[in-house]
Amino acid sequence: MAKILDQPRYKCAMAAMQTVQAITRALPILHAGPGCAEKLGGSIGSSGYFSPHIFPCTNISEKEVIFGGESRLQETVANALKVVDADLYVVLTGCTPEIVGDDSAEIIRTFQNAAKPVIFASIPGFKGNNYLGHEWVLQALIEQYLKPVPDKIKGLVNIWAGLPMHDPFWLGNLRELERLVAELGLTPNTIFGHDRGIANIAKITAAEFNLLVSPWVGLSSVRLLQEQFGTPYLHYPTMPVGASETSKFLRAAGAFAGVDPGVTEAVVARHEAEYYYYIERFADIFLETRVMAKRFVVVSDAQYALAFTKFLVNDLGLFPAKQYVTDDTPVEHQEAVREYFKELNHGIQAEVGFSSDGQQLQEEIRNTDFHGYPLILGSSWEKKLVRDLKAHYLTISWPIIERLVINGSYVGYHGGLKLLEDIYSVVLTRFN
Questions:
Q1: Could you name the CATH architecture of 156-274?
Q2: What is the pLDDT of residue 182?
Q3: How far, CA to CA in Å, does 47 sit from each of 21, 88, 143, 173, 331?
Q4: What pLDDT, on a 0 to 100 scale, did the predictor assign at position 291?
Q5: What is the fold of 13-144?
Q6: CATH architecture for residues 279-431
Q7: At what angle do helices 412-427 and 170-182 cross, to 10 degrees?
Q8: Residue ranges of the chain whose pLDDT lies below 70
Q9: What are phi and psi of 235, to 5 degrees?
């Protein structure tokens, strides 16, 4: 019997069109039925030079289901090349053409000599969600577009983290990671967001190594880059938030890159001195505001659930209740993610639940004894739960409908302070 998924935390794989959209002047071309772009591109901040409203689409109908949609795809790509000014055209195939058996890859091969590059990714929704779709788009980019280079650029590092546009903080996080890596004397290279795009994609194979900051998303991509181009990778599973994890991150990245330890320690010392200056100034708030219980819950994808659990335990001294990972983490990665939640200070370990069913996980949270008003970090789906529990609440993951995030970030030392600001701004409202 089919199971109804209540309160989804992700979209179908076709939403990986946002991965393409996040590359400056890259255009998604959808080989799918009408309405996919409109339904899947509804995130806040999805307009721009190209927006889902103007993505070329074959708009498959009953005719293409019966007779095939290959000629329709050929026509749509040819017209997009004529009328849309882009640097890279990425054809994305949805459910219907995959079911009827269109040979989309063969159609795209006919455009090999086009004036602009055209590549193809199969991302039907029945194969997975947009976290996996993101990986499939990167795989297409690696296999069909990238070329080997004769020499590596010393100090150049590709940074991969988060899900573009689906993650509200995706761009702010990338930029803060760039700043941290640059302080080690390295040259960061990212392909998403303003002033990156095709020029930076061309440098991917020239990097000395790939830096993946994610529990599992992106892991298959950096492994493919190593296999195809011999580029080693550093997998740092925890997005660094606050002093404890950011200092570990800098030391790990510096050691992998062969940076002089003295340089790394100087960067760490400078940032920690400033970070703890602010912590000391507001210690009375953190230590004496007893209205918030010491137990907390994070309901989010693996990236944020892990990052915020480590920050709240290691930097703030709270204790984790069961944490909920909602991104439908593939089974082959779940055990590794569970182990990451055991790497907390003082031997503390957090129990992890992998669930995409909002009703089920919220019932578990309702039945948890928090010994006071809990802290719940999650999405807008948790709003009613929070009212019922009289909890302190901060939205940190999709879907977010009552908060605007433009280029905000919780990454790094400054990000940790920003998270404390946001949490205690909520806590202090109990006194108003």
A1: 3-Layer(aba) Sandwich (3.40)
A2: 98
A3: 9, 18, 28, 20, 34
A4: 81
A5: Rossmann fold (3.40.50)
A6: 3-Layer(aba) Sandwich (3.40)
A7: 140
A8: 1-4, 42-43, 67-68, 432
A9: -100, 105
